[in-house]
Amino acid sequence: MDKLVIEGGRRLEGTVKISGAKNACLPILAATLLSDERSVIKNVPALRDMSTMLKILKNLGVRVQQDGSTITVEPAGYKKYVAPYELVSTMRASVCVLGPLIGKQKKAEVSFPGGCIIGPRPIDLHMKGLKALGVDIKVERGYIVADAKNLKGSNVYLGGHFGSSVLATGNTMMAAVLAKGTTVIENAACEPEVVDLTNFLIKMGARIEGVATHRLVIEGVKKLHGAEHSVISDRIEAGTYILAAAITKGDITLEGVALEHIVALTDKLAEAGLEVKKAHDGIRARYARKLRPMDVTTLPYPGFPTDMQAQFMSLMAVTDGISVITEKIYPERFIHISELARMGADILLEGASAIVKGVKGLSGAPVMASDLRASAALVLAGLVAKGRTDVHRIYHLDRGYEDIEKKLLKLGAKVWREKEK
Ligand code: EPZ
């Protein structure tokens, strides 16, 4: 296992290229299962989660070829419909093959995705959406077992206790595109990753109206064809580098990223005093004055993303004053607090809100990454901390941040990877 070592205290500056979005790419690769024809997916980041998804596709009998960031999927003639425990248990997002298998094979067996360090992650909305389409679906032997011979369009409201659901919307939509008749999904998620998936499905010949809104109207078709698609850039990776500029008092230009996808973050940071501007083909984030503390609440898109909460907390931990960070998507997603405290942060958890008292500085320490975004938060803290920080268990980071140490190194950080002893 690897760890990341950071000697903190350097100002980051320069240009960084943002990779393709992990959370758009995973369901798009799954969607290729809806056709018998070849699809070509470009701008695929080199990440552990992507390898897991490719293993799942291969395990289903699909041929997959990789050439750099381009993946060619040849599903012709695949007959299998099982996504086994050994693969699904390593990545919760594997559940997004459920909708495509139901749509194409009219049956599926997908290992029930387990719990997760960021709190309970139920799949009742996935089940609700698919049941509404006439799918007979139950949990047996730890698997979601679906029989979809009566797959037909229907109306379904996909709102849960915490609002809309990204992957439940994706799964329901991917089953509906090959269902008989019309499906209306109310309270559909409209995260940019869902929009990218929808655009890919439309390229495959799906008939979907209401793209990027909370009401998707899907007219089922008999067959989809293969398509070529370039995945959108990763707004969460982009946001993390913007925060790296803020926390190191730096000046970073991000290439290939859409400002409109991260307005909730950039607006907060601008209010805090960071200069964030549209630059040629991207965004420039520059520390120009002392930052002010900011309160944020995570919400479904276009609200402040839960996937930026931990990283934003690292910045507030060293911003003079008090800020309150409230989680409305995953109320237990606060494991990073105790690790930030090891570095000298002063953070109090009150229910689903963290009260952060900005301290003058952090000091490097050995810390343990608990999930992907918590790991990114610890890296940000390490960049500003005095001395050496060892971020252990960075396999989490490798699930979601392509070439993180190379990108940070290029921006002037002193960072390297070491094998754990
Ligand atoms: C996606 O997960 C992302 N993963 C997550 O990113 C992200 O945190 C999350 O959306 C929220 O934006 C992928 O896209 C692969 P949800 P997803 O269903 O779709 C509740 C990362 O770090 N809910 O939109 O699984 C749920 O508990 C990861 O990259 C139900 O109640 O999340 C949560 O409170 C972590 N029932 C809320 O909805 C359900 O059936 C939103 O979750 C499903 C979800």
Structure description:
- The protein has 421 residues and is an alpha/beta fold.
- It has two domains: 2-19 and 233-419, Enolpyruvate transferase domain (UDP-n-acetylglucosamine1-carboxyvinyl-transferase, Chain), CATH 3.65.10; 22-230, Enolpyruvate transferase domain (UDP-n-acetylglucosamine1-carboxyvinyl-transferase, Chain, Alpha-beta prism), CATH 3.65.10.10.
- It is built from 14 helices and 24 strands.
- The strands form six sheets. The chain has a four-stranded mixed sheet, covered by helices on one side.
- The N and C termini lie close together (9 Å).
- The model has no long low-confidence stretch (mean pLDDT 96).
- The structure holds ligand EPZ.
- The site of ligand EPZ has 25 residues, from α1, α5, α6 and α12.
- Residues 23, 26, 93, 121-126, 160-162, 165-168, 189, 193, 306-307, 329-330, 372-373, 400 line the site of ligand EPZ.
Q: Strands across the major sheet, in which order?
A: 22-23-1-24
* Proportion of residues in β-strands: 25-35%
Average predicted confidence as pLDDT: 96
Distance between the termini: 9 Å
Helix content: 25-40%
Key traits:
globular; 24 strands; 2 domains; 4-stranded mixed β-sheet; 421 residues; 25% strand; 14 helices; UDP-n-acetylglucosamine1-carboxyvinyl-transferase, Chain; 31% helix; alpha/beta; binds ligand EPZ
How is the topology of this model organized?
Elements: E1 2-7, E2 13-17, H1 22-31, E3 39-42, H2 48-59, E4 63-67, E5 70-74, E6 82-83, H3 85-88, H4 98-105, E7 107-111, H5 124-132, E8 136-140, E9 143-147, E10 155-157, H6 166-176, E11 182-186, H7 192-203, E12 207-209, E13 215-219, E14 228-230, H8 235-247, E15 251-255, H9 263-272, E16 275-279, E17 282-286, E18 296-297, H10 309-317, E19 322-326, H11 336-342, E20 346-350, E21 353-357, E22 366-368, H12 372-384, E23 388-392, H13 395-400, H14 404-410, E24 414-419
Parallel strand pairs: 2-15, 3-14, 6-7, 10-11, 18-19, 22-23
Antiparallel strand pairs: 1-23, 1-24, 3-5, 4-5, 7-9, 8-9, 11-13, 12-13, 15-17, 16-17, 19-21, 20-21
Helix pairs in contact: 1-2, 1-7, 4-6, 5-6, 6-7, 8-10, 8-12, 10-12
